[in-house]
Amino acid sequence: MAIKNSQTQERGLAVARTVAELRHAIAAFRAAGRTIGLIPTMGALHEGHISLVRGALGRSDVPVTSIFVNPTQFGPNEDFAAYPRDEAGDLAKLEEAGCRLVFAPDKDEMYPGPQLTTVHVSEITDGLCGPLRPGHFDGVATVVTKLLMMAMPERGYFGEKDYQQLQVIKRMARDLAMPIEIVGMPTVRELDGLAMSSRNRYLGAAERATALHLYRQMMAVARAVRDGGASCGAATSDATKALLAAGFDKVEYLTVIDAESLEPVERVSGPARVVAATRLGRTRLIDNIAVD
Amino acid sequence: MAIKNSQTQERGLAVARTVAELRHAIAAFRAAGRTIGLIPTMGALHEGHISLVRGALGRSDVPVTSIFVNPTQFGPNEDFAAYPRDEAGDLAKLEEAGCRLVFAPDKDEMYPGPQLTTVHVSEITDGLCGPLRPGHFDGVATVVTKLLMMAMPERGYFGEKDYQQLQVIKRMARDLAMPIEIVGMPTVRELDGLAMSSRNRYLGAAERATALHLYRQMMAVARAVRDGGASCGAATSDATKALLAAGFDKVEYLTVIDAESLEPVERVSGPARVVAATRLGRTRLIDNIAVD
User: Fold this and answer.
1) A16: which chain B residues are within 8 Å (Cβ-Cβ)?
2) Is B150 on the interface with A (CB under 8 A)?
3) On chain A, which terminus has fewer CB atoms closer than 10 Å, C or N?
4) ipTM rounded to 2 decimals
């Protein structure tokens, strides 16, 4: 423990580096009759993460945030090494937001030996980011299971910004009968609509100006297809062309999906989302919004 | 709940059919300061299972036994339909042994929707029963994870008789950081050495007489190879011939393995086990013993 070890008092942020420290601190909150809300993050925190802390506080949970850049969810050609890290800044933001406990383990604490066990979620990982990032969702499902088992919170908080990930985690918790409620929280956006993301730090000034078109085009798709109006294929095709014209280097996908099965839909007749993954320079930007 | 709903009193067996009933009953034990020991079984209970109940009692855990013949761990040509079921007999044995709570869900309670999530343990499932029973250990790891999450016991009790299964479950609990201790309990044997198994009920009288040779031959191998004496290949080859001569229809494997990695060893120089899987008529018999 560092910073404060007064974690059962009404304020103050403690930092646990080991599972034993985490469980010790959580047991103290529990003994005081408090419920726990875990917010798993990879650090480089922004207002979107902080909204998850507020979500926990709004449900009377003690917010516990984990910070761990999980290597197993990055592909060999992805940005694990470059992923932004700013623990001092993260801790300051978390204390300000009312977080009570941070779990910031190193790799050996999270993976003390060869990890032979994998948690796999099928079907809803077959499309979208699944085939584009082989092994990614297995890495996510496995590390989130571990973090949930380490903290055993009443609730786990995740952003809707990673919509497919949120559905994978919800499904995993339900399928494995975890006694933990998975709470999805709305995406937090910049004033021009760009979804907050740790990877926005990669964007140069010109790219940042271009980036706002993603939200605009998703909104255009959602307006066009709502209530079964336009064909989803036509609307997303138009939006894809507009993104490339605006300066995006690639549109990996821009699709309208069923909100639960994540299967593409051609005419909207129930809960649906517009989901997109794009490349802008060296930055991969993903986003999604509800239709309606 | 049935039979008794006085589950927080000092005696008496309650039966929970749903996860909600199970958690309600366990919460009552917890509130009374008791720890929980879960004994997952497929029913058709014998003295081996009852020794697991005693193991829990010996550690001051409240023994909670689950009875569920899990379809996902049987292959398409295996004995799921024929697997013995005797709930009334099981409940009587469990109450007599001091078990306090039985969880006996039906299939829809265990798998309320399509199960998209699988827990997979690699490497230690590559040999022995792994390739002979494709999907078996995924089915076991997944259902045991679910049962552990449903009951959230302090300890889970499993027999050493299914040695590879025990190692898979230990590894899974460790790799996923479950806050649950997995306790292995010694195999219970008939007077002539035959390991107790629900599948022994399949054996006709002549087969039952033949069956005792499995333990004898495993003992012969263990004696021969201990302290790096005989080559494991030679000893197991002799024992395999003896089993076939005694009337076994098939020896799927008879191997000396490292007790932790489950890799075959040729000369014993550390903790090792003799493991065997055989066919006797329509019955598959497995067993294992420690070398030394």
Assistant:
1) none
2) yes
3) C
4) 0.95
Look at B146 and A177 and tell me if their CB atoms are within 8 Å. Answer: yes
| Per-residue pLDDT tens digits for B116-162 | 999 999 999 999 999 999 999 999 999 999 999 999 999 999 999 99
Cβ–Cβ gap B116/A171 under 8 Å: yes
How far is Cα B21 from Cα A177, in angstroms, rounded to an integer?
14
| CATH number for the domain whose boundaries are B14-185 | 3.40.50.620
Q: pTM higher than 0.90 for the full model?
A: yes
Closest residue in chain A to residue B125, using alpha carbons only: A116
Enumerate the domain spans of chain B. Answer: 14-185, 198-286
The domain made up of B198-286 has a fold known as Pantoate--beta-alanine Ligase; Chain: A,domain 2 (3.30.1300)
Asked whether B185 and B159 are in contact (CB, 8 A), the reply is: yes
The answer regarding whether domain A198-287 maps to CATH 3.40.190.10 reads no
List of E strands, chain A: 14-16, 35-41, 61-67, 101-103, 117-121, 155-159, 181-185, 250-258, 272-280, 283-290
A81 touches chain B (CB under 8 A): no
Q: What is the pLDDT of residues A206-262, one digit of tens each?
A: 999 999 999 999 999 999 999 888 999 999 999 999 999 999 999 999 999 999 999
Interface mutation vs chain B, best among A22, A170, A175, most B CBs within 10 Å: A175
Judged by phi (left if over 0) then psi (alpha if -120 to 50, else beta), residue A259 lies in alpha
